[in-house]
Amino acid sequence: MKIRNVKVPEGINVSPHRPVADLFVLTAGTIGLFLALGLAAFLIGTYGGRYMPMSWENALSEAMFEKGEQNDIPEADLRAEAALQALADRLAANMDLPEDLHITVHYLDDGRVNALTTLGGHIFVLRGLVDRVESENSLAMVMAHEIAHAANRDVAANMGGALLLQLVIGTVTGMSPETADGLIWGSNALLLRQFSREAERQADRDALAAVAKTYGHVAGADAFFRILLDEMGEAVPDEGPEFLSTHPLTEKRIKELNAMTEARGWALEGEMTPLTEALTGLVPGY
Amino acid sequence: MELLIEILLELWQLVVVVALLILGYIAGSIAERRHYKSIIRREDGLGDLVVVVAKTLPPMDAAPATTLVRGSVVISVDYFKRFLARLRMVFGGRIHTYESLLDRARREAILRMQEQARDLGASMIFNMRFETSSISKGNKNAVGTVEVLAYGTAVIPRG
User: Fold this and answer.
1) Are the Cβ atoms of B46 and A20 closer than 8 angstroms?
2) Checking phi first, is residue A220 left (phi over 0); if not, alpha (psi -120 to 50) or beta?
3) Chain A with chain B: Cβ pairs closer than 8 A
């Protein structure tokens, strides 16, 4: 009797499969998983930053920014800073601030038209802005906007979100924190920007309410945006699509503020308060 | 600028990975197809050299000569298969790409053992066994490599 080995049947030990399709499905799944992880980290960081106790934010701010002693600040700058601080205090009294938040205003001898907020209620007002505004009302709107950012904990929320996102990107890709950070801030991190635009709108609304409460009318409140439009008209004719920008389009912001004024029945006209003497005629110093 | 360079460097790594994937897939597919062709052809040719796992010989007229025969093969997974297997390890499920790898290794090992037995003039191999071991085991960055050893007792009829 002739016996032979049974022919090995194909397709049992090696099941039929499509490796390339598998690769795409699995890769997409992995990327989706990491995106979800990143989004979760960002949201946790944002909420953590926004809702952490104010005392923590103050402590962080103290730890991050060393107080530099500067003795050669011109007298005029110190007076301007005091005047700005007084204005901020008046506005803050009419705003809903967390208990431990104390607004500290810093005057910067810088020609750019801007004001900014950092952790712990530190607000920087640049000389360029003070130069450009024509009334205290306009300056108050900008400062109230910055105070609102501090009060809404937007800075802490942004930093918390970016920090955790950076951590996830760094862990997953093995990038250095600097590269990951650059990727988040440098690229158009759409997520971050959407959040940021919402924060800007809220700050606009809070600021307008504060100005209305402080002065009894909202005249001059839109001046800053008009100045911005002016500046941009010179520099960049086209602001670009809104979803790529951190701030809502300026035109849109003015429109929204007008609508809010109308809805709340605030007076559009009123007596404008001139800038105090300390804030006029500021010159570039040292 | 520095940041841009850094991001490009990160991207460059991605390009390398994709290139290796494509290379691995093409080279791996060609190698696998050729190997299977050769396996099937040789299995057919050696079909009459019977391999059984039984431990005892069937009754025979004269006591045959017996000797140990073995066939061993070392086979490596390609970059593409390893990449896919790693992804699979995240989600679970069958690692198809490793199935063909081990299937090829086992069949090749049997063939080599049969070839040795044929050279000795054997008529059959009984008590055939497998040993499988990973050579790359414990070496984290090494590409998966396995050794499969097939061995058995060759029956050489006297005559």
Assistant:
1) no
2) left
3) 73
A27, closest residue in chain B (CA to CA): B87
d(C-alpha A37, C-alpha A192), whole Å: 15
Tell me whether B90 touches chain A (CB under 8 Å): yes
Reported residue count of chain B is 159
d(CA A124, CA A114): 9
User: pLDDT tier at A147 (50, 70, 90 boundaries)?
Assistant: very high
A13 in reach of chain B (CB within 8 A): yes
The span from the CA of A193 to the CA of A246, in Å, is 5
From chain A, pick out residues whose CB is under 8 angstroms from the CB of B141: none
**3-class DSSP state of A35:** helix
Q: pLDDT for A171-202, tens place per residue?
A: 877 766 666 666 666 544 555 556 677 888 88
CATH value at residue B53 = 3.30.110.70
Nearest neighbour of A30 by CB, restricted to B21, B87, B99: B87
Give the residue numbers spanning the domain of B24: 2-156
**At how many degrees (to 10) do helices A177-186 and A154-173 cross?**
130
Q: ipTM for the complex?
A: 0.70
3-state SS class at A87:
helix
Helix (H, G, I), strand (E, B) or coil at B69: strand
Domain boundaries, chain A: 76-152+189-279
Digit-coded pLDDT (tens) for A148-168: 999 998 888 888 888 888 888
Rg (CA), chain A: 27
Do B96 and A14 count as a contact with CB atoms less than 8 A apart? Answer: yes
Verify whether the Cβ–Cβ distance A14 to B103 is below 8 Å.
Answer: yes
